[in-house]
Amino acid sequence: MPPKRFDQARPFLTLIVIVIAWLVVPVVVKTFTRASFIELQAPITVAASYARDLQEYWTLRLHSNSELIEAGRDLARLTATYEYSVQQNATLQAEVARLEELLKLPAYANYRPEYARVVRRDFSGWWQQLTIRKGRNYGIPVGAPVIFSGGVVGRVSEVRAYTAVVELISNPGVRLASVIEGETQPISFQGGINATFDAPRGVIEFVPLSVFASAAMPKRLVTSGLGGVFPPGLSLGTVTKVEPSADGLFKSGEVQLDPRLSTLTEVTVLVPLNPE
Amino acid sequence: MRRALITFLTLFVLWVIVAQSNHALAGSHVYLFLGGLMITYAALHLPLRDGVIAVLLAGLLSDATTPVPFGLHTLLFAGAFAIVANVRDHVPREETVARVIVALLANLALFLVFSFALIGRGPAPGQVWPRLIVDLLCSQVALALVAPWFFALQGRALVLARVERDPLT
């Protein structure tokens, strides 16, 4: 029988062995282990999302015929409006292409929209991310922009066999080049303040001194299209506060992000058609 | 080894439940963290080798699905496991209340260490604490509610797998 003192120290000796083993294990082994555990849990997460979809389907089946007729009528009106917008868009795109050709301008990056259901939302104080139900099987690349009807959702941070992880713009680690709508000077945007029961917020830095915004007079913040994967003009949020920063050369401020970011059920991944 | 795998399976069930709860709570910006529950039963009841294996597997599972340095959960769980396993002879571990208190304390410690490790990445670390405190309170309440059921589940799973005797027979 081992001495009592040694027996008491066994858990800590085991811990030391684990830490040393973790430090010496090759990265290849760790990467393989991580991938194995990701794919171990993936079917469960995806199955849960299919179960939710089925639940929603049966909920919708309970609607009466008159409600469905009403919804169909509203949808037809919406479709007519969108058809008109599509025609206008085609005309404008042709005009842009003609001007690009005439002025020898580099063409905007083209994207293929890939719609994906959200299978899991993680909104902690430490990180914010979504898992979507499309991955390598749909050609989703790492870094692709992800959008929804309210603007930018985030960017793809990890692609797996059948799922992908989207890092949200509210995540503390996300930095983007942005501009105030109608202006040209780029501003640095960073996500990160996510209070409970409140809309997510981000911060902006290097705001020109000429910019003024407040909760009563908010300004829209959009992507600049500079030095990143996001096309220009996509909505990021609303600037509700700017104040001079400590150095006095610029201002810094707060951005209110779309509150729907934390309840998304479907998003669109913009897959670049000519990745460089 | 079978004991470790059965315990890991129960931890996997807990992980799925917590992930689905967090998915549902995302709209309210509330996040549950039940790391303390992952290690308590294994540290208090299982032999050291089986307990370590189960906890390490649970840590790897948590690491694989979160954007943290791979191994953070694993090493933190292993550390918490070592501390609880070291004091288990001084804890009335057959009593559910004692187990729940150990789980609450372990969860509090893990949550705080985790927060200090990750909070520096944001633009305004000081402003994140109110959110983290609310998350911690919600997590502790959820843990206190779920823990008795989960300990019973782990105990019954080991009995059903015939690696432990049914205490009722």
Q: What's the mean pLDDT score of chain B?
A: 89
Q: Measure the end-to-end span of chain A.
A: 66 Å
Q: Tell me, rounded to a whole number, the average pLDDT of chain A.
A: 87
CATH architecture of the largest domain in chain A: Beta Barrel
Care to count the β-strands of chain B? 0
Beta-strand portion of chain B reads under 5%
One letter per element, helices H and strands E, the order of chain A comes to HHHEEEEEEEEEEEE
Can you count the helices of chain A?
3
The H-and-E topology of chain B, N to C, reads as: HHHHHH
Which term fits the overall shape of chain A? globular
Biggest β-sheet of chain B: count, sense, barrel? none
- Kindly estimate the percentage of residues of chain A that lie in beta strands according to DSSP: 25-35%
Q: Structural class per helix/strand content of chain B?
A: mainly alpha
Shape descriptor of chain B: globular
- Termini distance of chain B? 24 Å
Main sheet properties of chain A: 6 strands, antiparallel, barrel
Say what oligomer this is: heterodimer
Helix content of chain A: 25-40%
Number of helices of chain B: 6
Percentage of residues assigned to helices of chain B: over 70%
Task: Walk me through the structure.
The complex is a heterodimer of chains A (276) and B (169). Chain A is α+β, with helices and mostly antiparallel strands and 276 residues long. Chain A folds into 3 domains: 3-61, no CATH class; 73-170 and 263-272, Rod shape-determining protein MreC, domain 1 (Thrombin, subunit H), CATH 2.40.10.340; 175-261, Thrombin, subunit H (Beta Barrel). Chain A is 34% helix and 30% strand. Chain A is globular. Chain A starts with a helix and ends with a strand. Chain B has helices at residues 2-25, 35-45, 48-64, 72-87, 96-118, 125-160. Chain B has 6 helices and no strands. Helices cover 75% and strands 0% of the residues of chain B. The longest helix of chain B has 36 residues, at 125-160. Chain B is globular and about 55 Å long. With 169 residues, chain B is mostly helical. The chains are: A alpha+beta (276), B mainly alpha (169). At the A-B interface, helix 1, helix 2, strand 1 and strand 7 of A face helix 1, helix 3, helix 4, helix 5 and helix 6 of B.
